[in-house]
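PROTEIN–LIGAND DATA SHEET

This sheet pairs a single protein chain with one bound small molecule, pyridoxal-5'-phosphate, given as SMILES. Inputs appear in the order they were entered. The predicted three-dimensional arrangement of chain and ligand is reported afterwards as a token string under its own label.
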Amino acid sequence: MIVIIQSVIVPVTYQEILAGIYSLFNSKNRLAEFETMLSELVDCEYVILTSSGTSALYVLLKAYGLKRGDEIIVPAYICEKVVRLLLDMGYKVKFVDVEKETYNISIEDLNEKMSKGTKVVIAAHMFGNPCRMDEILEVSHDHNAIVIEDSAQCICAEYKGKRVGSLGDSAFFSFGEGKPITTISGGAITTNDKEVAKKAMDIVNKFKRTNNKILLKLILYSFIKNRRIYRLVYNKIQKRRERRWNELKNAMNLDDLEQKFTNLQASIGIIQLKKLRYFNEARYRNSTFLIRGLERFKNIRTPKIPPNCKPIFLRLPIYIKDINLKQRLLKALIKSGIDASPAYPNYLPNFFKINHDCPNARDLVRKTITLPVHPCVKQKDLIGILDIVRRVAE
Ligand SMILES: Cc1ncc(COP(=O)(O)O)c(C=O)c1O
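PREDICTION REPORTED AS:
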């Protein structure tokens, strides 16, 4: 029987489930403890917890007092939800192309597209590989634009000795299902700006208190860690992924973002954060192993790690120069039980019908496959992946 190696999964234990149940009957407030842990890890003074990464960005943009029609620069290769949110909040989205080697925003194109009217630049660390923050800050601040780091895909990745999430004017994180740690859903703002932090906190304080079946989702999530169970539900999960991508073509309900992060999530988050170092080391070890193993294939390019940076790689993106080879490889991997995915599958200027040309992003979307490197991936799985690549690519 073929077992399936999930594309992304964060190990959730019975201990976390029990802690979740316990926190429902215990009035002890875990939120402050989780905030303090995160603030120490990211090395940022203020942390404001939110119900998702998207909600964190929503709150931040309001806290900065942006108005409808203000221009926001966003990389053309980023999670669709970010762009969906910006459009639904009424901002003018300007796409900037990305670098082929890192999937992160291109400084050259940023320089070109930056204008007097740009109010915010979103600097995303795609797949957990830090983007060129020094240059992004310099160009943006020269134009009086605010830099918001999208750190949804990495906690504790390092850029020149500093932690991502502490480098921009503000940043946000996500604790969604496939993220560096998970509380099923959830997010956080980090900033050293006292005024922004206060405004963000005032906004979040007015949000609704909901539980959103977190405990039930956590139990189900811990089951799919088992590969045989994952195999049984793989088709359903695949369909859900596709449905969610399609839903993003339509406006979202912004009211759904106005919910609070719960005590239950904080108590799970605390246990998860204690394991972050182990998770990150496993991701780093697995991705480095694959990068080394893939070096000899002329048709395959692995991401470039900028000097003095330490990524954490949530998934490892690989670029396959020949589109037919890419299709064959993707098929072979899935057939062998490896949930490789063509993420991100949508060229965003087309997906959102905004006529900006970003040739690198367009090409990366067509020719990229992401490989699993999460903490549940074992050495023999990685050897298996390299074997499949060798069989198909040589
Ligand atoms: C790069 C990036 N930004 C933003 C988000 C949005 O986070 P969330 O799913 O928690 O709303 C995600 C996650 O899907 C992401 O990967």
